[in-house]
């Protein structure tokens, strides 16, 4: 490992903002201040740019093992690095699922060679079947901190209760829920509302999310357990989380860029790129998610990066699988939608994209999202916050192409990404 100096940028982290160079040696930040240099140091140009802690995405689907035609740990991590992420949490709905120490170990091994730190979430239940708890202690010992059956909701309240109780014995562990009541969403393909009625597409009601979040918050109260709402999408659930936080319930929540930007009206195109679970909601829901991000009810922006090979997204709306790509565009959508119009400051957006999610997933203990200060790991991204660009799916590093942002002109671009002191993206190009 070498020495590098990130020169000429504006450093923004949890502690504040200042113009400073960042000197890095052997993967660790050694000095932050003006006019830094060191003999033989590689110079990383941050002139006119923002230098921030690397972004942290606590919900991605890298499809390995099982669907390597859609994505792999290697390609997903490269795409994430291009999006400014130095750490991600891969969801366990793979084939086989991540409910077993051997499978988790194999994915973590793949991650060691990747362009960003790949942590994994473990299943709450064996086989993601919702009945019997997975060996959470064994998975915890491998470093798993987020437990979820994501892709599916844990519908059985008693199983959720026991998961909360078990996780209480594991410091830093959190029970994360894909909050959609399976009975209420059965057969549905988009948000249930005016648009689903007009289009004749069976709906998934907001109540499916709200009822599960309400129940889980009661179970978190009952057990003292830690609860995290994945990809929260409704005004109702946001209000419940806001009230629970005020009462001291141990709850955090995340929202995905699509849920604070797009509405169910997009489904009128019948283009499956707009199909996802939870679905795109009404404009009132979108407004509530934005308000939740602003007042801190929603702690994190997470992408739910869900690659699907082109063939499957060419199916009819009702046959196509749900999900969209996210890691390469999340920062720019957040800047375009929230920072540019003055809804959030850039630093508050970075809080929701870096240090707050890092803390939820325990990735701060691995050197992610920490202040840019001597002694901390050099996990950094360098951002041009006002550069505009047009999303071209053909240029994506992902194996898949299912992005609803194709052709969108976005503001905010990642210039460089540095992982443990090593550049992995330079001038917008992957170098690893
Ligand atoms: Zn999910």
What does it look like?
Strands 1, 2, 3, 4, 5, 16, 17, 18 and 19 form a 9-stranded mixed β-sheet that branches. The chain has helices at 73-82, 101-112, 136-141, 157-168, 182-185, 194-199, 206-223, 235-246, 283-295, 310-313, 330-339, 346-360, and strands at 3-13, 16-25, 28-33, 42-45, 50-53, 55-60, 85-90, 117-120, 146-147, 174-177, 190-191, 203-204, 227-229, 251-255, 300-301, 380-390, 409-419, 422-426, 429-430. It has 2 domains: 3-51 and 375-430, Urease, subunit C, domain 1 (Roll), CATH 2.30.40.10; 53-366, TIM Barrel (Alpha-Beta Barrel), CATH 3.20.20.140. With 432 residues, the protein is α/β, with parallel strands linked by helices. The protein is globular, with a radius of gyration of 20 Å. The longest helix is centred in the middle third of the chain and has 18 residues, at 206-223. The protein contains 12 helices and 19 strands. Helix 7 runs parallel beside helix 8 (235-246). Zinc ion is lined by residues 150-151, 178, 230-231.
